[in-house]
Write a sequence for this structure.
């Protein structure tokens, strides 16, 4: 079945450093979504990418969808302590496909 | 506030017991999803309902069952509970079914502890 792998599992950075998490699917995706879960909270939708090669930005966050629509990345520039949390990608396989979540990357930021 | 309401927030029960988790989706959302999140684990998809009908099943145990009622709220029933069932159970809702690709809106979750 469809699998979505996400790396790294954990990332510890100094405040101000950049951070990137990568997501890879075993199958071609119709779209990919990114969520953030703060400690003790619930996942919150960040963004959805649909087109091959699409790049979207939200302030310091840059999201990319690969040309083959099988991989994606989230890059945070100059991390802040408010960026702490677990970032999940979720791949959608298209018709009748379900949203499959990666295991997430847990980001900690040292002030 | 996501608009998705889950009750109860916490549940402590003994092995072998049965519990019911409840979820009210956002107003206007037709799909309800249930996910299980164990400590430091990802989100394991359990089951999805769309407008009252089961749409998709994930890694849901036979001891677990769910339903979506005409008013679109959903219940997840967990029976013959085992220690390993201790986890955070999230409900999420979306406007469309999973094939529509619409974002999921998660509730605050129900933390189940089986002793």
């Amino acid at each position: 079945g469809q699998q979505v792998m996400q790396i790294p599992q954990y990332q510890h950075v100094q405040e101000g450093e950049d951070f990137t998490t990568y997501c890879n699917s075993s199958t071609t995706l119709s779209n990919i979504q990114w969520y953030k879960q703060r400690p003790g909270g619930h996942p919150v939708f960040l963004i959805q990418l649909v087109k091959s090669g699409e790049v979207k930005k939200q302030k310091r966050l840059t999201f990319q969808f690969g040309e083959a629509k099988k991989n994606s990345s989230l890059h945070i520039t100059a991390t802040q302590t408010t960026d702490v949390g677990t970032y999940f990608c979720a791949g959608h396989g298209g018709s009748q496909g379900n949203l499959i979540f990666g295991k997430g990357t847990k980001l900690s930021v040292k002030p | 506030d996501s608009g998705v309401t889950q009750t109860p927030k916490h549940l402590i029960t003994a092995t072998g017991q049965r519990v019911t988790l409840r979820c009210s989706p956002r107003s206007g959302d037709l799909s309800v999803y249930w996910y299980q999140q164990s400590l430091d684990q990802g989100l394991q998809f359990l089951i999805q309902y769309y407008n009252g009908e089961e749409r998709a099943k994930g890694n849901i145990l036979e001891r677990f069952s769910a339903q979506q009622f005409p008013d679109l709220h959903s219940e997840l029933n967990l029976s013959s509970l085992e220690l390993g069932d201790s986890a955070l159970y999230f409900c999420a809702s979306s406007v469309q079914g999973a094939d529509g690709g619409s974002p999921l809106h998660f509730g605050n979750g129900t933390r189940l502890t089986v002793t």
